[in-house]
Structures
1.
Amino acid sequence: MTTTGTTPPPTPVPGEVKPRRAMPRGRRGAGAPGAGTGRASPVVRIVLLLICFLWLVPTIGIIVTSFRTADAALSSGWWTVITSPLDFTQWTITNYRQAWDAGMGNSFLNSFAVTLPATIIPIMIAAFAAYAFTFMEFPFRDTLFVVIVALLVVPNQVALVPLLRLYTDFNLTGQFAAVYLAHIGFGMPLAIYILRNYMSTLPKAVIESAKIDGASHFKTFWRLIVPMSVPALASFAIFQFLWVWNDLLIALLYLGPGDKAVVTVTVAGLVGQQNQGWQLLTAGAILSMVVPVAVFIALQRYFVRGLTAGSVKG
Amino acid sequence: MIRVINALLAIIGGVGGALLLYWILNKLAEMLPQKWEERVKPWVFILPALAAISLFLIYPAVRTIVLSFANSTSTAWVGLENYTDLLGSRDFQITLGNTLLWIAVVPAVVVALGLGVAVLADRLGAQGEKLTKSTIFLPMAISGVGAATIWRFVYEARPAGEPQIGIQNAVWTALGFDPVAWLTVDTLRFNSFLLMIVVIWAQVGFSMVLLSAAVKGVPVDTLEAARIDGANERQIFFRVTVPQIWGTVITVFITVLITVLKAFDIVFVMTNGNFNTDIIAVRFFNELFRNGDNGRAAAIVVMLMIAVIPVVAYQVRHFRAEEAAR
C-alpha cells in the first residue's frame, strides 16, 4: 500500500532512500546499472510472493467483510466472495453508515482535535531548540543533548501515573488538551533529535555568511534554517501524526470512552461488544485507518527519510 | 465542529503564543549588553523545549520512582511492599515470563524476516521490489487497535458445525479438526505466540526498510572482491554483507525491543492479558486504570525503567561514537 507516491517523478520507494551519510564512491544506488534486475531465481520469487500473500490476506479479510451484510458476514467466510462476487445481495455500505453513527463519526472529529495540535505545536518549539543545539555555543550543550538522546528510548509509561494526578489537580482529565499536551512533551525528544541531526548536515558556510552580513540568530533561523529544514520538519510531522492518531494508551487514560473518545478508543470499545457483529467492527476499524493510511501513502518519502535518519521513539 | 475549531484555536494559540514568547524573550535578550546577550540567547531558544521535556518526562519519571514506594492512593509510604507483592505473586511472575518470551522472540524474528525480505527483494526488478516492499510496509500505518481487529478476525472461532468465518479455523476445520478458540490456548504459550505474530506482522516493514537501505549501501567492490576470491553467495552474505550492516541490525533490534517492552494495544485489545497472555505494559494499565493502584503501577514502570537502562547506555555510547565520526 505504501507504493504510490502522489508526485510521479521521484517515486518514493522505501528502499530508495540514501543512507544518511552516504559515501559517494562505490555505492549501488537504486536504479543504478546492475541493481539486481532478474537475478531472482524462481524459488526466490515464489517465497516473496507467498510472504506478500500472507501479509495481505488478513487485511483483505476485514476490507471484504466491512462491505458485506450482517447475514452474509456471519454465515460464510469472506473468502467465499471469490466464487460469488456478483451475488449483490451480500454487498452493502450500511455497515459504514452504522459504524459512523455508532460513534465513529464523533470520534473522527475528536481524533483530529487531539492529533492536529499534538503534531503542529511541537514542531516550532523543537526547531528553535534544535537550532540552538546545532549553531550556538552554551554550557552543558552536549550534556543536555545526550539527555535528549537517552530519553528517546525511555518508554512513555514512566510519565503516566504522575501526569494523571497532575491533570486531576488541574481539572484537565477528560479534556483534549490533556492528551495533546502529553504528546507534545513525549514527542519533543524525537523532534529535537531529528531536526538537530538534519540541521547539522546543512552547510555551515551559509550560516557563517549570514552572520557576517549581520543577521541575528533569530533572523538566520527564520529566513535560512527553517526553510532549509522543511524535509526534516515534514518527517517529524508525519511520525508524530501517525503516532498520535494511532495511540490508544494515552487517549484511553486521559480521555477515555464516551463523548470525547478518539477513533482508537471507539474501535477498541467495538471489539468488546461482540454482539455488534464483525461487519460493524470491521467497518469501524477501516474508518479508523483511512486517515493515517492516506497520510502515510501521500507522504511516505518523508516518513522513510525519518526512519533511516535512525530515529527511535520510546 | 466546535471541537475542530477548538483544535485549530489551540494550534493558533499554541504556535502563536510560543512565537510571541520567543519574540519577546529574544527582544529582551537583545537589550542586554553584547556579552550577556550571547550568553542568554541559546537559553531563550531551548527553554520552551526543555520546559516541555522536564514537565512531561523528567519530573513525572522522578515522581513515578517516588510513588512506587507509596500505597495505592499515594497517601502513605509502604517501603518496598509494591515490589515484593508484585514479584511474589504468581500472576505477575507469569506476566514477567511472558514479557521475557516476547523479548526473546520478537526482535530477533523481526530482524531476520526484515533482512530476508530486503535481500531477496533486492534481486527482483525495480517494479517487483517496490511492490513487495510496499506490501510488507503497509501495516506500519495501521494502529495497534486496527492490527488487533484484523488478527482477531483471523483467529475468530465459531462453534463446531457452524460455518467458520475466521480464516485460521476455516483451514483447520477443512483439514478435519474441530474448531479451536486459538487465543485461549495457553499450552506452551501458544496464544502468546499468536499475539507475537501480530506485532511481527506490524514491525517487519520497518526492519525491512532500514536494512534494505543498509544492504544497498554496502560498497559493490567488497562484494566483487569476495566473488573473485571464489566465495559463494551465502558466504558473501554472512561474511561480507552482514558485518557491514551490523550497526543497522543493532539499531533495528533495539527499536523493536523497546516497542515490545511498551507494547500495549495489541494484547490489550486481543486478550486484555487473559488466558496467561499478560505482558508488563498491559499489567501496568490494568493496575493503574482498573485497580486504581498508583503504587503498583508505578512499581511496574520502575522495573521497566531498570530494564531499559542498558539500552539507554548503548544508545548514548552509539550516539557519542557517531558524533565523533562526524
2.
Amino acid sequence: MNTMTDNPVTQRIRQTIDSSDVVLFMKGTPVFPQCGFSSTLVQVLSLMGVKFKGFDVLEDPEVRDGIKSFSEWPTIPQLYVKGEFVGGCDIVREMYESGELTEFMTSHGIEQQPQQG
Amino acid sequence: MAMESGEIVRLIQESIPDADVRIDDLKGDGDHYAAHVLSASFRGKSRIQQHQMVYKALKGRMGDQLHALALKTDVPAEN
C-alpha cells in the first residue's frame, strides 16, 4: 500500500485482518466491551448472528495506534470483512439500520443467523 | 478535552468550503457531538471517503481532543 508495508505493526494488523472473515478491532472483548461504541457494534453483529473475531486494542497499544494510520481512520471500533475496511460505529450502524449491512454480508459470503424478535 | 462546536464547524468549512454543517451537543458537555455534514464535494465518494474528508479537516483532533463525534455525511439534494 505504501512505505508502511514493512512496518512490523502494519504486518501484524494485516495478519489479524486476514485471520478471520469478520474482524472487529474494539476496546475490550466481545463479552466485556469497554466502550459504548465498541459495544454497539458487538450488538449489531450479534443481532445479525455473524461470527466475528474481536481484537482488543486496549491490550495492544501498538495496534491501537497503528490501526488508525493503517485505515486512515481516527477512531475505534473498526470493522473488517474479508480484509476490507467496512467502517466505524456510525457507518456500520447506519448500514445495519438501512439493511445495507445484511446485503453486504450476503454478497461477501458471510453466514448470518439473525436473532428472532 | 472538550471543544467548542463553533470550532468544529470552522475547521470543517476551512477544508470543505461549501459544507453545510449542523452540530448537536448531545450531552451539553462540549465533548459528545453529532455532526451532519452536507457537501457537493462528497458526490461520487464512498461513505468511508466522505468521513475521512471530515476527519482530515479536523486535523487529528478526532479521537483526541474530540472524544465523540457521531458523523453523518450526505450530498445535498439537487434542486
